[in-house]
Fold:
Amino acid sequence: MDREYRICKRCIMDTTDPDISFDEQGICNHCREYAVHYGKDVFTGDEGKKRLDEIVARIRAKAGKSEHDSVMGLSGGVDSTYVAYLAKQLGLNPLCVHLDNGWDSELSVKNIENIVRRLGFDLHTHVIDWEEFKDLQLAYMKASVIDIEVPTDHAITAVLYDVAREQNISFILSGNNIATEGILPFSWVHGNKNDLINLKAIHRKFGSLPLKSYPRLGLCRRLYYHVVKKIRTVKILNYIRYNKKEAKRIITESLGWRDYGYKHYESFFTRFYQAYILTKKFGVDKRRAHLSTLICSGQMTREEALSEIQKELYNEDDLKNDKEYVLKKLGLSEKDFERIMALPVKSHLDYGSDLKIHRLIMSAYEKLKRFKARR
Ligand SMILES: [Zn+2]
Structure:
């Protein structure tokens, strides 16, 4: 990272993203790409409503008399909670699926209970085998790759598809959205959370227990679910003017939801990962991307974002407590952990990966979708 420091003049993305580029006005590639994505994939106002009504009609028609018309992942975070709220408003009845990976905070458990109770939705909790999951998380840490959240994100998608198939449900409601998550540099995450080849390669090299029950979803299975079973994911937040502050206010008032302080802090591990491991070892502060997205979607000014990013990620007491808790739960000594933190950073691609073929398929699929839409 011997590049001269530079920050975008419009958002707050900077050279901590090694691939960032700037135009003559000093505006970064993320700002430009965001505008393109937003223009292509976000529909608000009457157009959004029309499209959302069509989607709801399709979901209902497909469900027929089945009890649940869709499945959705419920982490208890803002986005998934708002998806649940919106689904209710739209007259849908999703089966809410929660992945318990052992790291839920007490507050997230309470929030999830409140959400399903107040909305009258059913909840299916998939409790992951802790010893296997711990072994996999430790393997990712020892592999020294940036995206230690893959074991969680991979399992959530796998469980959602499995539940959809078992219950004969064709639609998965997703909280992924462009308005609050549209910016995320390629190098800050692994580009394919369903990269089973990468997961297996890392676990083979650094794991010590066989993965017997860990939920898996590789490329072939994903294609099978998509092409044969015709299970579709719907990002419903892209069909409304999704505003984080407003969403928080609504879910707080109507569902008794309580804030965790920051995005994804519903999980103890994620908080420690984002606020400590990512910043200290990888030099990445994910808030920079989240705040930049809010600037680009008009939900925050650049000045507000600059002041927000100055706030410290951890106060000393919280850091000490979280570190003690995480290390103890993972069975790591302070020394082992420091050794992991000092390992040279590796790319996910240093291990086996299906990222290239995944990108080829995704780009062909996008082209096909746009071709169909034009006809
Ligand atoms: Zn920018």
The chain has a mean pLDDT of 94. The CA atoms of residues 144 and 239 lie 38 Å apart. DSSP finds 16 helices and five strands in the chain.
